[in-house]
Specification:
By secondary structure, the protein is mainly alpha-helical. The chain folds into 2 domains: about 160 residues, no CATH class; about 300 residues, Neurolysin, domain 3. Helices cover about 60% and strands about 5% of the residues. It contains 21 helices and 5 strands. The strands form 2 sheets. It has a 3-stranded mixed β-sheet. It has a two-stranded antiparallel sheet with strand order 1-2. The longest helix is centred in the first third of the chain and has 36 residues. It starts with a helix and ends in a 7-residue tail after the last helix. The relative contact order is 0.11. The mean pLDDT is about 95.
Length: about 475
């Protein structure tokens, strides 16, 4: 097999897909025209190619081919799913809103009953219009995993990613158990400030408004959003380059911020749809971590180290930058916030929700992708695990839409652990104002230039000699004494 030619064609394929993803999900075109792209590069994504890459021993390219083969088999459903999401509207009390913008409206809605009504309408549309397609895609991907010789999607993803998902679940279960007694006590004060009530009235629909944290809007003014971002990149000496910022509001723009590395390192799009307040700062900085990582990769790296590999690494850099939005030194320096206590308390509470949620998500997805006898009971499993983790009734309807492909939840979980170490190293070497130090920027550039050549645990071992362990988050949140 000619790996050089395969890499070249694979990079063209990934670039074409990412460009289409960017144009559609940034709201610039209605179509999500991926089917011709898959057809044009079909020879990259065949069972024969998978077998040849197995024999060649290139795990990253093998993972790419398998994921692409699944994508090719489900491309029609994926395109239709995107089309429906862009076209769907929901009506509430005579007001019509685009499906994709409903989450933004919900996060800014002060009336808890109206928040619940918006979410109910969104979930009803999800169950009726999206879940049938999502189930088709899930069943086809499970079938393909078996056809390719694995016993299950879980076994396939473990082998291809190199991540021991069972061990990771043991770590997240330990985190859930250790943080259980602290959870409501840590959240309740902030819930009462942001919502006006605690767990006695809390509904799932209240979380987006809680994360939005409108009481902190004075700290996170819209006027300083882009200025603080640019000053931070300049302080590190990482401004410019291939990063292209897209903050324009469009009706069909997805509410979920994203980074589209169309041509690494020269054409990388950072896309956010502004919700207002703290959310916008976190989203912009998170995607900036991705964008700078991609934009500073060495152009001479093989494509599998620029586009593929362990995404725990790029997510780790994203969480590193996102954390600045709650960093006292950054808040004082960039936003002029003198009393940072409320911001820090809110960030700590919100992070605990996310960590517990992703621990439950991993447990659920392991069951979903481990060859269940029937998918039908899984909606109740999903609702039960999330309800137990977050102490609030969790609706069943998201059991398919709340699943990222190929256990991407595991990348987030590992990235949160990696970020705690990266942040500590930067503070120890360059001080609490590391974001203003060119030497810190140079240090990050040295890490970024290697792309994702090393998986997260090997990168950490090389950097500090430590082991990647999710339990590090307990100490980071102050839930166990420091050693």
């Amino acid at each position: 097999m000619n790996l050089t030619r395969y890499r070249e064609d694979a990079e063209e394929f990934v670039s074409a897909l990412d460009r289409e993803y960017y144009l559609h999900f940034s709201g610039q075109q209605d179509e999500f025209d991926i089917e011709p792209i898959y057809d044009r590069y079909a020879e990259l994504l065949t069972t024969d190619t998978v077998q040849a890459l197995r024999e060649a021993g290139n795990r990253e390219l093998l993972e790419f081919a398998v994921h692409g083969l699944v994508g090719r088999a489900t491309k029609a459903e994926e395109a239709e799913l995107a089309r429906r999401e862009a076209a769907l509207e929901l009506e509430l009390d005579g007001e019509v809103m685009p499906f994709r913008q409903a989450a933004v409206v919900q996060s800014n809605e002060p009336d808890p009953d109206r928040r619940a009504a918006i979410e109910e309408a969104r979930l009803e549309l999800t169950a009726r219009e999206l879940n049938p397609l999502l189930r088709e895609m899930l069943e086809r991907s499970h079938s393909l995993a078996r056809e390719l010789g694995w016993r299950s999607m879980r076994e396939m993803c473990e082998e291809l990613s190199g991540i021991d998902l069972g061990r990771l679940e043991g770590q997240t279960n330990g985190f859930l158990e250790a943080s259980e007694a602290h959870y409501e006590a840590l959240l309740t004060p902030r819930l009462e400030v942001e919502l006006g009530f605690g767990f006695e009235r809390l509904r799932r629909s209240d979380f987006t408004y809680f994360f939005r944290a409108r009481t902190l809007d004075a700290a996170y003014s819209e006027e300083k959003l882009l200025t603080s971002f640019r000053e931070t990149m300049a302080g590190l000496g990482v401004e410019g380059g291939g990063v292209r910022l897209d903050v324009e509001q469009r009706p069909k723009k997805t509410p979920r911020a994203f980074c589209a590395p169309v041509r690494v390192p020269d054409e990388v799009y950072l896309v956010i749809a502004r919700h207002g307040g703290r959310d916008d700062y976190e989203a912009l900085l998170h995607e900036a971590g991705h964008a700078q990582h991609f934009a500073h990769m060495s152009a001479g790296l093989p494509m599998e180290h620029r586009y593929l590999g362990d995404n725990s690494v790029t997510e780790g850099f994203a969480f590193l930058f996102q954390h600045l939005a709650a960093d006292p030194a950054w808040l004082r320096s960039r936003l002029g916030v003198t009393d940072t206590a409320a911001v820090e308390e809110q960030a700590r509470a919100a992070k605990l929700v996310y960590l517990r949620r992703y621990g439950a998500k991993l447990a659920y997805e392991l069951r979903l992708h481990d060859e269940p006898a029937s998918l039908d009971p899984l909606a109740d499993v999903y609702a039960g695990l999330l309800s137990d983790a977050l102490h609030v009734a969790w609706q069943r309807d998201g059991w398919l839409s709340d699943v990222d492909p190929f256990f991407y939840a595991a990348c987030y979980i590992r990235a949160w652990a990696l970020e705690t170490h990266l942040r500590r190293v930067l503070r120890e070497r360059y001080g609490e104002h590391w974001f203003d130090e060119r030497e810190a920027g140079d240090f990050l550039k040295q890490l970024w230039k290697d792309g994702q050549r090393l998986p997260a645990h090997e990168l950490l071992a090389e950097l500090t000699g430590e082991e990647l362990d999710f339990s590090a988050l307990l100490d980071d949140l102050g839930l166990v004494p420091s050693a």
